[in-house]
Amino acid sequence: MEQKKLDRKKESIESYFVKYGAVPVETKNQEKLGLRTTFEQGGVYYRMDESEIDGRIFLVVSAADDPKFADVGVMEEVAAFPADLTEEQLEKEVRYILEVEPYPDDYPDYD
Amino acid sequence: MKISFDLDDVLFVSPKDYETEPPLRFPLNRIFPERLRKGTIDLIRSLQDEGFEVWVYTSSFRADVYIKTMFRHYGIRFDGIINGQRHKKEIQAGSPKPLPQKMPHLYHIALHIDDDDAVLANGKQYGFRTFKVFEPDDQWVEKVLAEANRVRSLEERAVNRRKEKQT
Fold this sequence. Notes:
The structure holds 2 protein chains of 2 kinds.
Chain A: H1 3-19, E1 23-25, H2 30-33, E2 38-41, E3 44-53, E4 56-64, H3 67-71, E5 76-82, H4 87-97
Antiparallel strand pairs in A: 1-2, 2-3, 3-4, 4-5
Helix pairs in contact in A: 1-4
Chain B: E1 2-5, H1 28-31, H2 40-49, E2 53-57, H3 64-72, E3 80-82, H4 84-92, E4 109-114, H5 117-126, E5 130-132, H6 140-166
Parallel strand pairs in B: 1-2, 1-4, 2-3, 4-5
């Protein structure tokens, strides 16, 4: 998937963050490190990234509890899913991440 | 009653040496590479069903959200998580002298499960109850459940004795 399409998917996911109550926050090194916007909800900081896993590009959500770590962009990956999911599936992923609903027992294998 | 678990070498174990729960599905198994000791899910559910609060107390600096999210994939929700960062901020920061890496009694945790002899020794010195889990053991779930219930009985008896003294 070309970078522009990938970025549009990330924007879409970020709009779901906002839809479910997360708010964008300013962080120190966002521009310097070329990071996307960080969002905060319930004391947890989230950021959209992408990562190559087994040779495939996945959309990745990184997170941190500590504002100091969030501020310098140090986060741990907590979710990863393919970029070619439908809008409905992407929104579902955000609902799981933000604990709007629990992960289902039949959560898909993206292999 | 609160019971806490260490992570590394207690709930998180190497599949080379231990029987483990199935890994998470791809690609979650890449971002959460830790493997759970077989029986972990049943044990935590059983404890919570029996009315225990189940906490994590780890000296590792894994983020709370990382631990919480990984276990949510197994259908487990902890009642509390203390990681190295939280311990440093809430326990060590208030003390001029170096304190042990875990002080479960300060969180009103009545029983802490760990593999580390130093933590067990600190339990004796600082007055918190511990139970050792380390090597592969088919009976570990039953042993932890039995110990949790034993400690709960002791705690209840102590409360009753205090009440009797007051009346």
